[in-house]
Amino acid sequence: MSVSSVNPAPNSTNEYYLTRQSQMESNVRSYPRKLPLAIAKALGCWVTDVEGTEYLDCLAGAGTLALGHNHPAVIQSIQDTLASGLPLHTLDLTTPLKDAFTEALLEQLPGGKAEYCLQFCGPSGADGTEAAIKLAKTYTGRSSVISFSGGYHGMTHGALAMTGNLSAKNSVNGLMPGVQFMPYPHEYRCPLGIGGEAGVDALTYYFENFIEDVESGVTKPAAVILEAIQGEGGVVTAPVKWLKKIREVTEKHNIVLILDEVQAGFARSGKMFAFEHAGIEPDVVVMSKAVGGSLPLAVLGIKRKFDAWQPAGHTGTFRGNQLAMGTGLATINTIKEQNLAQNAQERGDFLQAEFKKLAVEFPCIGNVRGRGLMIGVEIVDERQKADHMGSLPGDSQLAAAIQTACFDNKLLLEKGGRNGTVIRLLCPLIITHDECVEAVARFKKAVAEALVATRGA
């Protein structure tokens, strides 16, 4: 049945569909609770609900829609694939389309196909994470993993064990053992309570000493997994010197370094991959979201020396999604042809500068950070006392009110970070300057309204 053939109830509204959704779907659904709309159509950076209301979308499928909604190149790719007669699903059998996508994707990795090979996984980033960890354990023969506080690597059993946020973990016993968490540098909330470059230097030293100290109490891990920019953790960017030291130490001790680029990858940070800002080469790169050009796909980029799999060592029925390979290829080509990495950097610089101006007007904006079109705005309670580093307590109630007010002002975005105090923007890479100006104007209005709603001023 096509969308156009559906006959909704007379005078149906967003509420009609949301009510039906609540009756038919599990309680696990989350986005409809924060963004209560039913989408009728979408194009570029704009979404239209069933009532005809347009929203400026700065969420973009949590970063999946690198080219925005229904980009012509993506639609043409789908149409071409359907018309070609290719099967839509091939397990891991190859096709000319898969061959072209594989070559194009390898070209984006440092060293290209001379250095890396690809592994196609199931359709989600979590499956890619699971495969990467299994591979590291297979290669090294070791069993433990180092992850970082604030990191997010998925909701499956193993991936959840390596995720920092406790809300989904507290009710699930028996997660994957052997995960050791370490502190991740944070420009506004230094985990060591030092702050600034001194805090980064201390954390850089701490990691190296932890691995090399024979009295650390922790055996050598199979892998270190991290995000070069923590997304769900509140858009926290890894300092270059810290990333370089992690690469140096893991290489020295034959520990597999896994970079989770599921959200930050594909030009979102201003470079094709966020780890490129540090000039490092991971052993394994986890890709999903934008890699499939808006359709489900997960892929690992594996340094060839670490490809320790036996045939069928990790499988997945939908690893042969031909439509996603077509749209992924179209997305890579469009990013390159239109230099969207530069657009992401320029638009992101503008947005950060504008949000920092708003922070002068609204002291509840405690910190603005990120790279490219991956931006975090931390909401604080400036009426409270700052800590010894000058950081103010987060205000989760106000952050939630701002997200609601943004929705009321027809601006879609997400929250994240500790206790949900960070407003996150993941705009499509194609966003224009005028659309950025509009996003800032709507955000400013929303902050003012949220302050009145929560504080009466």
Quickly describe the structure.
The protein is built from 14 helices and 17 strands.
How is this structure best described in words?
This protein is an alpha/beta fold and 457 residues long. It has 2 domains: 3-64 and 339-455, Aspartate Aminotransferase, domain 1; 73-337, Aspartate Aminotransferase, domain 2. Helices cover 38% and strands 15% of the residues. It has helices at 14-24, 31-34, 60-63, 72-84, 96-106, 112-115, 125-140, 157-161, 196-212, 240-252, 322-337, 340-361, 396-408, 433-455, and strands at residues 39-43, 46-49, 54-57, 116-120, 145-148, 179-182, 223-226, 229-230, 236-237, 256-260, 284-287, 299-303, 365-371, 374-379, 411-412, 414-416, 422-425. The strands form 4 sheets. The chain has a 7-stranded mixed sheet with strand order 4-12-11-10-7-5-6, with helices on both faces. Strands 1-2-3-15 form a 4-stranded mixed sheet. Strand 8 and strand 9 form a beta hairpin. Helix 12 (340-361) packs parallel to helix 14 (433-455). The longest helix is centred in the last third of the chain and has 23 residues, at 433-455. The radius of gyration is 22 Å and the shape is globular. The protein starts with 13 loop residues before the first helix and ends with a helix.
